Amino acid sequence: MSSRKEREKRREQRLREESPADRGDRRTKLLQVAAGAVFLAIAVVVVLIVVNSSGEGGGDARNLKDVAAVDRLLGGVPQDGLVLGDPKAKVELIEFGDLQCPVCKAYSEEILPELIDAKVKSGEVKIAFRNYTIIGDQSTAAGAAALAAGAQGRGWNYIELFYRNQGVENSGYADDEFLTAIAKGAGVDDIGRWNKERKSAKLTGEVSATTAEAERLGLTGTPSFAVEGPGTEGMEILGTPGSAGEIESALEAAS
Q1: In what order do the strands lie in the sheet with 224-228?
Q2: Architecture of domain 2-254
């Protein structure tokens, strides 16, 4: 704890001593991190798609897997809606994703756990998930179901468990039976309330709103990431970084 306080003290002293030019250089560094990751991201995305496609099929409402693993990953971490982490965290990582997206699934399994363990559990960073539905009609229903789970403090459990049981892209697996099984596995307490809210115009409208936001930002695929913190000028778009290390570098630059 003392080392963390010392790091924070040094960071605050550095910010006080920075000239406007220094701050500009730091912002440039953040943008370079995002730009420099583009080529690597393309290669990594291809690999993730191949790995994901070669795995076992999912989409089975009667045979959910990794319920305990998701509980271990997220245990003890605060959740508010679809925001994971300490609400007072100064840096926020925003993910725009589609629950039916196979690359989003791969990121949730291979990249985000490292960030959650290293940055979110320490209270340094919070992660916000925003629906960007580009796969098909069931993506909207799935996104609204995640929001309804978030209203009961189980939104990230829903997202992570959905990804770990994701079926073939846009194959029709994400029906009411599957969505309900994920809700139960994620620990949603009041299924009746969840079932009513997930079909409401309010939550389906929220899915549409965040999708429109992603389009306004010029995002063209999922997952896409952005970061916001003391070291950024509003929301800085990262695109699709190729590794947890690339995202961590952007988070450090934003702190």
Answers
A1: 79-80, 83-84, 125-131, 91-97, 224-228, 236-239
A2: 3-Layer(aba) Sandwich (3.40)
